[in-house]
Amino acid sequence: MVFVMVGLPARGKSFISLQLTRFLNWMGFEARVFNAGNHRRTTETGVQNASYFDPKSTTAAARRDQIAFEVLDGMLEWMDEGRDRFAVFDATNSTQARRRMVAERLQGTPGLGVIFVESICDDDSVLEANIALKLSKSPDYARMPREEARQDLLRRISHYETVYEPLEEEEMTLAGGVVRISYIKLLNFSSHVVAHNIWGRAAVTVLPYLMALHVGSRPVWLVRLPHAEVTAYSWRKQGKPWPPPREVQFAEQPLSPQGHAFVDTLAAFIARRADGIAVFTCTHRRGLELAERLGGGRVRTSLNPQDRGICFGLTAEEVAECAPDVLADPLHKRFAGGESLADMLQRLVPTLIEVEQEMRPVLVAAPLTPLQALYCYYAGLPVASAVSLQLPMHTLIELQPSGAHFTERRLSMEELCGPAP
């Protein structure tokens, strides 16, 4: 499937493109952004200030079209090399004529789904945030004084506005007949969304995800459930019978004194950092106790640990003997009587979308396995690597948005006691 971006400059197209591919890669697909601006910067040697985008210059307009279709052809080559791939064609595609040319080129690939995604901003605060993001992240303005860069960008936007044609229920007459296009229109990111002719996987996962996007700067905090009096590991280490008696429920074990001390330290840290937060946790008693200490939270069964079936409670070495096929392909292979990593991701998607749409600081407290999976999303890591990630207990992982990426720092219990930055 191909997503074709549409919109004026500084409307968040590249941000949306990068976030969408992050999400799709996290779900286990292959996804990549093909950006016309990046190709322009590597192939063009002349002046590329606002005058380059003046629609009155037919030479520059023809060159921009050529660059865009070079990127499109490279994208199609990449799509042909694998199966179940997703690509995002990141360019302005601001006129019906350009979109028709793109659709005609894509039509030559049988079975290829195409969705146009238009980003519109008429809210001054959202537009200013997008302009600031573009000025700080775009290589076009890396060596330009701030005010000069801003004025150049505004002139570029003005040039595009003179020819811009918003997406409508366009019917394109292509080689195979009349085609009714599929599109998603995002107004000020998620304040208003229009979906036309959207169905299947895109309607179930991609559309809700796009509706959650925003350019807010709130942090996301990830933390493992704090220490408990009794765990499966400690039970087995003490040589007690395994499997344990039915009345022994590890999910119902309360926080230990060490766990309570960490939660108190965490609560004090958050009180210094934020006026209010959104807390998400699992159904385990430790998670409920932590959420209560922080003023309450949303309980989600999706944040419960991966079901490892007959391998529950085993050490990593024992799992290697019990289920070597799962370790070889953790994304797709299921534990006998349990889940695969892909199964767990499917149930995590709605919670991830809830976290993404939050404008307040967010804390997610969960057992190791779902936290490993969520960390892969924010760190941009292959989700199959989740099983080997080291996420220590009583450590807060702080993820701060920086454009379409996240900066990370890890705070131990001792560091949480220090003054807020």
From TrEMBL:
PANTHER family: 6-PHOSPHOFRUCTO-2-KINASE DOMAIN-CONTAINING PROTEIN, 6-PHOSPHOFRUCTO-2-KINASE/FRUCTOSE-2,6-BISPHOSPHATASE
Pfam families per the UniProt record, alphabetical: 6PF2K (PF01591), His_Phos_1 (PF00300)
One GO term (biological process): fructose 2,6-bisphosphate metabolic process
Occurrences of domain 6-phosphofructo-2-kinase (ranges): 2-215
Organism: Alexandrium catenella
GO molecular function, one term: fructose-2,6-bisphosphate 2-phosphatase activity
Superkingdom of this protein's organism: Eukaryota
Organism placement in taxonomy: Eukaryota, Sar, Alveolata, Dinophyceae, Gonyaulacales
Identification of the protein by name: 6-phosphofructo-2-kinase domain-containing protein
InterPro entries: 6Pfruct_kin (IPR003094), 6Phosfructo_kin (IPR013079), His_Pase_superF_clade-1 (IPR013078), His_PPase_superfam (IPR029033), P-loop_NTPase (IPR027417)
Keywords noted in UniProt: ATP-binding, Nucleotide-binding
GO cellular component terms listed in the entry, alphabetical order: cytosol
Matching Gene3D superfamilies: P-loop containing nucleotide triphosphate hydrolases, Phosphoglycerate mutase-like
